[in-house]
Amino acid sequence: MLKTIFRFGLIIAALLILFELSKASLFIPELSSDVIIALSGAVFVGLGIYVGLKLRKERIVEVTAPVAIDHEQVKTLGLSEREMEVLQLIAEGFSNKEVAEKLFLSESTIKTHVSNLFVKLDVKRRAQAVTKAKALRIIHA
Amino acid sequence: MLKTIFRFGLIIAALLILFELSKASLFIPELSSDVIIALSGAVFVGLGIYVGLKLRKERIVEVTAPVAIDHEQVKTLGLSEREMEVLQLIAEGFSNKEVAEKLFLSESTIKTHVSNLFVKLDVKRRAQAVTKAKALRIIHA
DNA sequence: ACTATTTTGGTACTAAAGTATGAGTGCTAA
DNA sequence: TTAGCACTCATACTTTAGTACCAAAATAGT
């Protein structure tokens, strides 16, 4: 979020600078208004393309190989055994209720585990947790 | 491809029109040069962002394609282009709302796509869809 | 030009998922 | 023995997800 604010701040700053430059240019008699508008238009388009491409970057995904589980990573994140079990089942697409049944626990307990997992993995949703867990190689592909 | 050419044609046409409009505006005394430049700048930035986002689609394939997507599988399942886009974003852990924002669509539309995806993939939940889609190699790991 | 499909969007629900908070149990290391 | 941690479960919400049904556009293909 801060990053986004920073970027937009930069963009606004750039806009202001260009704006001032354009104004100044208007008083240089050698340049016709045509040229000025064309130039500023080109610059603004470039700026827009830059912004558009920046927006793209957030979509790039890490690709992971189907390899062994990184137990170091698990330790570092402080994931408990139960949490790992729950995470694995969630990654297989089971609902909280189904996970609860498989592990002979109440749905409440699963929700607690899942919430704790989200904090430790720094995610907001289970699908995100699954993707991150696979990227970190803490569950089977 | 024709679509792309057509769109870029439109963009160029729009640029020319705006260009002419901007020139004409210079001779309307009510509008200060400040306003004109600001407006045209904003419009050009918008155009640039549009172009940038269009470029994005082609690029992301290059960046995230180390694991080949099984296009045969995609055809067999009858998944449309839009559905694939939505599926990919869901696999990255985004909520329906977030996907809607990224694709400039309403959440309703995303829900429709997601529901259709579930039928085609024969799953009940998004996490399950993600796991199955990865297993079938129809999205990037 | 005319279909078939895709894409988009809406309303109205129901069902899951997720958050916040509290609390009891049991195990273990200081 | 007690402080800390893992595990369990509950209540009470709020928020997303998902289903069902419908319908208007935009596109693609013939």
UniProtKB/TrEMBL annotation, chains A, B:
<keyword id="KW-0805">Transcription regulation</keyword>
<keyword id="KW-0472">Membrane</keyword>
<keyword id="KW-0812">Transmembrane</keyword>
<dbReference type="InterPro" id="IPR036388">
    <property type="entry name" value="WH-like_DNA-bd_sf"/>
</dbReference>
<dbReference type="GO" id="GO:0003677">
    <property type="term" value="F:DNA binding"/>
</dbReference>
<keyword id="KW-1133">Transmembrane helix</keyword>
<feature type="transmembrane region" description="Helical">
    <location>
        <begin position="34"/>
        <end position="53"/>
    </location>
</feature>
<feature type="domain" description="HTH luxR-type">
    <location>
        <begin position="72"/>
        <end position="137"/>
    </location>
</feature>
<dbReference type="InterPro" id="IPR016032">
    <property type="entry name" value="Sig_transdc_resp-reg_C-effctor"/>
</dbReference>
<protein>
    <submittedName>
        <fullName>Transcriptional regulator, LuxR family</fullName>
    </submittedName>
</protein>
<dbReference type="GO" id="GO:0006355">
    <property type="term" value="P:regulation of DNA-templated transcription"/>
</dbReference>
<keyword id="KW-0238">DNA-binding</keyword>
<dbReference type="InterPro" id="IPR000792">
    <property type="entry name" value="Tscrpt_reg_LuxR_C"/>
</dbReference>
<dbReference type="Pfam" id="PF00196">
    <property type="entry name" value="GerE"/>
</dbReference>
<keyword id="KW-0804">Transcription</keyword>
